[in-house]
Write a structure and sequence with these properties.
With about 260 residues, the protein is of the alpha/beta class. It is about 50% helix and about 15% strand. It contains 13 helices and eight strands. Strands 1-2-3-4-5-6-7-8 form an eight-stranded parallel β-barrel, surrounded by seven helices. Strand 2, helix 3 and strand 3 form a beta-alpha-beta unit.
């Protein structure tokens, strides 16, 4: 079975650099896959991609050894299982608010007896190999998003769920939940404390910890804080920023 390089990086004590895919395009996914990321996450929650665009995007990512992840649109077993059957090697699940949510999420990602995932890896067998079913439970990464007050209150319960591999901080929803509004790269003392508590608790229990950031500078600081799965911006935002910067330079140089 094809190894999950994200797990290999973590076992070696390294940090996974994750790219984020908002553009529902196989070509965009292929460009990002060749840009140097360790993993790429297709966003079905707050991005245009849907199940119809997932397969071509996964096929494009497969032109490299970049590990394909997806963020599910919700803690919905049917969608999660379909993403895994399509060949995703990791799932980020939003709005995990307590142990019960985490148990349902992890169960959907694991074949019996470890969970209740239904068998039918229509593309995962092609991507992972003919022995996929026997190794999937050990290969697939489960990552629960921590982004509400309820999740913070039951953080230990979430982290203690067998089979959960990692947590992922959603700074905008967590900021809104704590009364600070949406946004990335948080500096509010309450947010700094909450983020520190999440990463500290996860790493203490042997789990990985991820976070969405808006800049390489802040991402670097989060690595120093103990995060070992860091995401900077998204393909759409990187394209928009690069295009705006180029246009701005040329506007300033043209004759008035």
């Amino acid at each position: 079975m094809r190894e999950n390089r994200v797990r290999s990086i973590w076992r070696g004590g390294g940090v996974v650099l994750n790219g984020w895919l908002h553009v529902p395009s196989s070509f965009s996914a292929e460009v990002m896959a060749h840009a140097g990321w360790d993993s790429l996450t297709i966003d079905l929650q707050h991005g245009p991609p849907d199940m119809g665009s997932v397969i071509p995007m996964l096929q494009a990512i497969s032109t490299t050894d970049v590990v394909p992840f997806a963020r599910a649109n919700w803690n919905d077993p049917g969608t999660i299982m379909k993403l895994l059957d399509a060949g995703c090697y990791g799932v980020i699940c939003p709005m995990i608010e307590g142990r019960e949510d985490a148990e349902a999420f992890v169960g959907a990602c694991r074949y019996p007896p470890d969970g209740y995932r239904s068998y039918g890896p229509f593309r995962a067998n092609l991507y992972g190999g003919p022995d996929y079913a026997g190794g999937a439970n050990d290969a697939v990464v489960t990552m629960a998003m921590i982004e509400t007050k309820e999740a913070l209150e039951d953080l230990d319960g979430i982290l203690d769920v067998p089979g959960l591999d990692a947590v992922f901080v959603g700074p905008s929803d967590l900021g809104q939940a704590l009364g600070h509004g949406p946004g990335m790269d948080r500096e509010e003392p309450e947010m700094v404390e909450a983020i520190g508590r999440i990463v500290g608790s996860a790493r203490k229990k042997g789990l990985a910890a991820g976070i969405f950031t808006g800049s390489t500078e802040y991402a670097g600081r989060m690595i120093d804080e103990g995060f070992n799965f860091v995401n900077v911006s998204s393909d759409a935002r990187l394209m928009a920023d690069g295009a705006a910067a180029a246009a701005s330079v040329l506007r300033d140089r043209r004759p008035s």
